[in-house]
Amino acid sequence: MELGMIGLGKMGGFMAERLVRGGHKVIGLDRDRAAVARAVERGAAGADSIDKLMAQLQAPRAVWIMVPSGKPVDDTIDLLVPHLAPGDTLIDGGNSYYRDSVRRGAALTARKINFVDCGTSGGVWGLTEGYSLMVGGDADVVARLAPIFQTLAPVPDKGWGRVGPCGAGHYVKMVHNGIEYGIMQAYAEGLDLFRHKTEFGLDLLQITKIWQYGSVVRSWLLDLTVNALSKNPALEGIEAYVTDSGEGRWTAIEGIEHGVPLPALTGALDARFRSQDPEPFSNKLLAMMRHEFGGHAVKTARK
Q1: Which of 27, 117, 169, 175 is most exposed by smallest CB count within 10 Å?
Q2: pLDDT tens-digit profile of 12-60?
């Protein structure tokens, strides 16, 4: 099957390579010409313009975009639309906000262009392990694209599926990432507690390795934690700064709108926010309040 792919960064490049290995023809386009060159070295065809990319695809054409969420997706779609014809399909495999995907799907459907939103999980391991694909869009369109999803998935009949209409794919991926926040936070807090129980001399790497077998908390995230601790047991040189890419915020907002309590998720999100502030003003204010009402000592900052 033929597929155009726009966005050949680390994940997009690996996805293109997996598709090529699976026997598909992939034509790649990226602003970074080096990324296109890498994809060509791995068996894909390359293009340096949308015109040249589209010319290498037979109708009905399918184009997969892997660009950052928000305006970059809209800008990419705006560039593509003049080159698309009725019956063509555009697939957004990035982490777009599901409401944006609903909007984009409606706008493209009005032009008789198919839109599929595909929540994609697997990261840099997807090339060898396969990707988890949560697909939203028209059932017939998704069925026609099934060979693509079957190749990207861990195995053809597992790890992917159509979860609903346009927007549903990114909605499921959004909640997936919110759950991920909570699991990661639980591991991090538990291991931090071990680290503070100094009288037992607990070995974090040993404990996490034990948990990998038979434990109810074993998981792929635990396996990755073991990998990280094996390389750097004390996490030396790592700053205690955790970014959030948007999905956790969107999931928290969704919980508020539906009146669904999400304490584990929102607590994990709060922890990330706190890590991003090197000098939390609220903590300073708490210290001053204690000083004002009880005369408690305040630790002054070093100059």
Answers
A1: 175
A2: 999 999 999 999 999 999 999 999 999 999 999 999 999 999 999 999 9
Which of 173, 197, 254, 284 is the catalytic position?
A: 173
For the chain, first and last CA: distance in Å? 63
Query: How far apart, in whole angstroms, are the C-alpha atoms of residue 92 and residue 102?
Result: 12
Please give the structure tokens belonging to residue 59.
């109708």
> Cβ contacts of residue 260 below 8 Å, gap of 6+?
254
Q: Is the pLDDT of residue 303 over 90?
A: no
Pick from 167, 149, 174: which is nearest to 159 by CA? Answer: 149
Please give the model's pTM, rounded to 2 decimal places: 0.93
Tokens of 257: 């709108």
Mean model confidence pLDDT for the chain: 96
CB 101 within 8 A of CB 82: no
User: CA 250 to CA 257: how far, in whole Å?
Assistant: 11
Assess whether pLDDT exceeds 90 at residue 240: yes
**Pairing relation of β-strands 2-6 and 62-65?**
parallel
The single-letter code of the amino acid at 281 is F
For the question of residue 180 being annotated catalytic, the response is yes
In the residue annotation, 197 being an active-site residue is answered as no
Considering all CA atoms of the chain, what is the largest pairwise distance in Å, rounded to the nearest integer? 77
* Predicted confidence (pLDDT) per residue in 113-123, tens digit: 999 999 999 98
Give the phi and the psi of residue 43 in degrees, each rounded to 5.
110, -5
Residue recorded with tokens 């936070």: 185
